[in-house]
Amino acid sequence: GAVLVDPEIGKAGDIDTAIVNMKLSSGAIAVINNCRRASYGYDQRLEAFGSLGQVEVQNDTDSTAVISNADGVTKEKPKYFFLQRYMAAYTAEIESFVRAVENDTDVEVGVIDGLEPVLIGLAATRSVKEGRPVKISELRAEYGL
């Protein structure tokens, strides 16, 4: 990780740009590129490659139109703020939770679904601070998980 966008973030003892390399239990590798700011909007894309194919999820935009002409290829910028992008998802999560309470059923997204990304973030933070790879199993043992 590094401070490449906002020096104030560095003064606060944090980073604003990071790459997280992960080796998954299946043997697959995953890479997360992260930056606190993109001048063109809230950039969050996903690509997955495998021996049988590839899947890609593009940024959420107000329009799916792509204009191609002699001047180049143009499309809308991604939505700028995460609330613009995720408001419908947050609403669906709340509705799902309310349904689970009303019907006395399990929630669709459980504690483990929330815990895993927290552990990844903790491992990435420790890796930056200690300058070494950090295994999730190390954190699980440390926190008794």
> How are helices and strands ordered from N to C?
HEEEEEEHHH
- Helical content stands at 25-40%
Poorly predicted regions are none
Strand content: 15-25%
Distance between the termini: 27 Å
Number of strands: 6
Mean pLDDT across all residues, rounded?
A: 90
Q: Helix segment count?
A: 4
The biggest sheet amounts to: 2 strands, antiparallel
The best one-word shape is globular
Family: Belongs to the Gfo/Idh/MocA family.
GO molecular function: oxidoreductase activity
Protein name: Inositol 2-dehydrogenase
InterPro entries: Gfo/Idh/MocA-like_OxRdtase_C
What would your notes on this structure say?
This is Inositol 2-dehydrogenase. One of its GO terms (cellular component) is cytoplasm. GO terms for molecular function: oxidoreductase activity. It comes from Candidatus Stercoripulliclostridium merdigallinarum. Belongs to the Gfo/Idh/MocA family. Strands 1-2 form a two-stranded antiparallel sheet. Strands 3-4 form a two-stranded antiparallel sheet. It has helices at 7-11, 82-103, 111-130, 136-143; strands spanning 17-23, 29-35, 46-50, 53-57, 66-69, 72-75. The model has no long low-confidence stretch (mean pLDDT 90). A hairpin with a 5-residue loop joins β1 and β2 (29-35). The chain has 145 residues and is of the alpha+beta class. 38% of the residues lie in helices and 22% in strands. It has four helices and six strands, in the order αββββββααα.
Search tags:
38% helix, 22% strand, oxidoreductase activity, 6 strands, single chain, 145 residues, two-stranded antiparallel sheet, 4 helices, oxidoreductase, alpha+beta, Inositol 2-dehydrogenase, Gfo/Idh/MocA-like_OxRdtase_C
